[in-house]
Description:
- It is a single chain.
- The termini are far apart.
- The chain has one domain: Na+/H+ antiporter like fold (Up-down Bundle).
- It contains 13 helices and no strands.
- Helix content is 77%, strand content 0%.
- By secondary structure, it is an all-alpha fold.
Amino acid sequence: MHEALLQLDSVRLNFTTSGLHILNIAVGFLMFSVALDIKWEQFKHIFKAPKAAIVGLICQFLLLPLFAFLFVWLAGGWITPGVAFGAILIAACPGGNASNFINDLAKGNTALAVTLSAIGTMMAIVMTPFNFQFYGSLYMKHSQFNVPLEIDPLDITKTVLILLGIPIVLGMFITYKYPNFVAKIKKPIKITSLIIFVAVVVLSFQNNYYIFIEYIHLMFIIVLVLNGGALLFSYWLSRACKLGIKDCRTLSIETGIQNSALALALIFNPKIFPPHLQMGAIAFIAAWFAVWQMVVCTGLAFYWRKRPRN
């Protein structure tokens, strides 16, 4: 398995500079559509019911990156730096934009889900670069791989700020100034942004289809452990903190669904991951995680939907 992953790390994906620009625009537009749902009043929820929100943010920004680091560290020689960085980067990203929809399917706490998405997205501007740089450096320091971490944290911060910060601030400003107008355009914008992003990902996948099929069996178990661990520890930590079942379901889904769009945009930025690092597996981890998390969390939501919440 390790030898095959080493071959995957050396694979150069078919992704051009123009493709990166299109991906960045698609991600920015997607985050702008997410921001149209964020209102300042939603931040008051954390003060009214701080316990569940605090547990959720701890799961998202403290425990999940730590879990990913421990997983790749304990895996040792079974994995490669590309796999390790892919897992750490996914864990460092904020919750995915589909988590609120899936939370509704699971009959979770909608107000809590929206609050966590809003606060988590804002916090990610700082926490995503920090967690990735911190645990990435820690992994390289304590692993057997003598590959220097040459990633400039300022490049990550600038990219996250452009892809998250600017679209979110713009979306929140427009929502605040023109609420009636936003109410009319919000739904078509959200649908259009999602279609555009999916189309970009599908085209990118089509250009690398044979490579993906050849190595998917190696990615499966890694993503399974990472996503399954996130769902389990967040749920049972919520139970241990004596939160209600609705809150437990919400925190599990919010932790189990990551913003893979942001991860892919960071991965294909040559200033952040220059080709000479030879970490081809990192893109495959993010791409397969994007698919897997939706399948598992949607199935889990339908299962919870049919079960009582007491």
